[in-house]
Amino acid sequence: MWNGGIGTYVKSSEERHGDVGDRSNDTVRVNGRELRCRMVAEGGNLGLTQRGRVEYALSGGPDGSGGLINTDAIDNSAGVDCSDHEVNIKIALVSAVASGALGPTSATSCSPR
Read out DSSP for 2-63? Predict the structure, then answer.
């Protein structure tokens, strides 16, 4: 299974939807042990709770004896790196707009005024 979206879609059977903190996905969220795929790869952030990740690894998978999964830091390292760059660019643009070196429209398109 590939998770590339925004939101938490898998939790542990011991967690309640309210524990997850992502109400918009309560109606589609499943428990880790209910996943019957052989492997989970995560391209989004926080697609599984940590307890959901462990539950899948121990009792999910095609036969219920566990599935293959990395930590989200491994599967999504490029996404995290990209997000870090994006934040740094936004910080620089906010400073440039505040000083008047760039107008808001230029900052949005990342082109000088």
Answer: EE-SSS--EE-TTS-HHHHT-GGGTTT-EEGGG---SEEEE-SSSSB-HHHHHHHHHH-STT
Write down the number of H helices and E strands in the chain. Answer: 5, 5
pTM for the model: 0.69
Could you list the pLDDT tens digit for every one of the 113 residues in the chain? 988 778 999 999 999 999 999 999 999 999 999 999 999 998 777 899 999 999 999 999 999 999 999 887 777 666 667 777 777 888 888 888 888 888 877 766 664 44
